[in-house]
Design brief:
The protein is of the alpha+beta class. It has eleven helices and 20 strands. The protein has a 20-stranded antiparallel β-sheet that branches. A hairpin with a 4-residue loop joins strand 19 and strand 20.
């Protein structure tokens, strides 16, 4: 698919980004990915907006990866979309019967008519031929768009009442059950998640996204709109990236809160890097990722570039490892995703045993949470985040949800795991209670 490319210089890139996202709300289909200028080695652009379906694929988990493989092969263009966690049911004979209040499709990708990349102070439009005569008009419209983000007047005043799907005592019991599995040797680690939700909730998705992004400024921020479904994500984690024949995975395991005092903050980051429990969590997942990547890697090419390195974000310090491999140039990009999905940082080790255990103990179908949002390029490269630190919203039934999890290992205590979940949930809760 040929695209017309045209670039413009802009004076204030932050102003332009705000106007761009407001302007994009006219479309029923929007994916916005923003790195927030976070300094990272593997970065392709500052931000990108994809909007307006030309073609698309939307399906449940049955043969989802095969359908995506066929769609990507035939299209050979930019594709933006998501993989929900429940595609695990396509990879392994697993089923999900937990409650789902959101109703996202299991897999969705679209070929955008309009693509707008942001590189520092340059805005690059890449439109398919049928709409390329709209580039100049659209650029002027964006520049003349009001900063006002309240593009949808709410019928009711925001009165979000957040509830817990799993209450504290029950959470403790479930973590103890996981610990019993660990002590029996069934698993080494499990990422156990819980949902916080609100019914009859009226939120302004764009307002909530801006608020969440300001609090966190993560490298994998996402605003996704698919008709009545919204994802507002402040994810700090990359799932998988393909650059030519190189594959990059960057699992996060290990969290510590930021402190206001710079000396105390530096100390807590220092302590995190040496924390035996946090490091063991991370190393277990690194071993799992190495195993996953080896399924498609050329022999002897799986290696660790960084092990348990501390990365600091506005809210938390995180331990991040970087695992890389090389694949044969004929390996299909979707096969690489299929062989590593779902990501180890959101499941546990061994992966399939952990998935089965947490499926029985969790009360909510994860859906988009702990899945991935990202894109394919025309040449078959890709980049996907991990959907964490995110608010999910179904505008049709006014259901809003955010989930958090933590890694349970032999050294875990239910009290500390619960505290870690509350720390991770802090930004989403604050946004929902203080938006509008």
């Amino acid at each position: 698919m040929q695209r017309t490319e045209k670039s413009f210089k802009v004076t204030s890139i932050n102003d332009f980004k705000t106007k761009l996202l407001v302007w994009a709300q006219q479309s029923e289909t929007v994916v916005w990915l923003d790195s927030n200028q976070y300094q990272q080695k593997y970065s392709s652009f500052g931000a990108v907006l994809a909007m307006d379906e030309f073609t698309s694929i939307k399906t449940d988990y049955n043969t989802a990866f095969e359908q995506l493989k066929e769609y990507q092969t035939i299209t050979k263009d930019y594709l933006f979309g998501y993989l929900s966690y429940d595609l695990k049911n396509d990879v392994e004979p697993i089923s999900s019967s937990n409650f789902d209040g959101l109703g996202f499709a299991d897999l969705y990708f679209f070929q955008p008519k309009k693509l707008i990349f942001i590189h520092q102070d340059t805005v690059e439009f890449r439109y398919i031929k049928m709409v390329d005569d709209e580039i100049d008009t659209d650029f002027n419209e964006i520049n003349n768009t009001s900063f006002q983000t309240n593009v949808k007047a709410l019928e009711k005043e925001n009165d979000v009442k957040i509830k817990l799907r799993i209450h504290k005592d029950e959470y403790h019991q479930k973590v103890n059950t996981i610990l019993e599995h660990i002590h029996r040797g069934d698993i080494y680690e499990a990422n156990f998640c819980q949902e916080f939700y609100a019914e009859d909730a009226y939120i302004n998705p764009l307002e909530a996204y801006h608020h969440l992004n300001e609090i966190s400024e993560p490298p994998f921020a996402t605003f996704l709109k698919c008709e009545q479904h919204y994802l507002l994500s402040a994810s700090p984690e990359r799932y998988l990236k393909k650059e030519g024949e190189k594959i990059i995975s960057q699992p996060i395991k290990g969290t510590a809160k930021r402190l206001r005092n710079s000396i105390d903050d530096a100390q807590i980051a220092f302590d995190l890097a040496r924390d035996e429990k946090e490091r063991s969590e991370n190393i277990m997942i690194v071993d799992l990722v190495r195993n996953d990547l080896s399924k498609t890697a050329k022999k002897g090419t799986v290696s660790i570039e960084e092990l348990c390195k501390v990365y600091s974000f506005k809210q938390v310090h995180q331990l991040i490892s970087t695992v890389v491999s090389e694949v044969d140039k004929n390996t299909h990009p979707v096969t690489i995703l299929q062989d590593t999905f779902p990501m180890g940082s959101m499941t546990g080790a061994p992966k399939i045993s952990a998935i089965n255990i947490i499926e029985k103990l969790e009360e909510t179908k994860r859906g988009l949470y702990s899945g991935a949002v990202g894109y394919f390029t025309p040449t078959g490269d890709f980049d996907f985040n991990v959907i964490i630190r995110s608010i999910l919203y179904n505008e049709k039934n006014n259901y809003v949800s955010y989930s958090v999890g933590s890694a349970i290992t032999a050294k875990s205590t239910p009290e500390k795991e619960y505290e870690e979940c509350l720390l991770k949930a802090k930004a989403m809760k604050y946004v929902l209670l203080n938006s509008n």
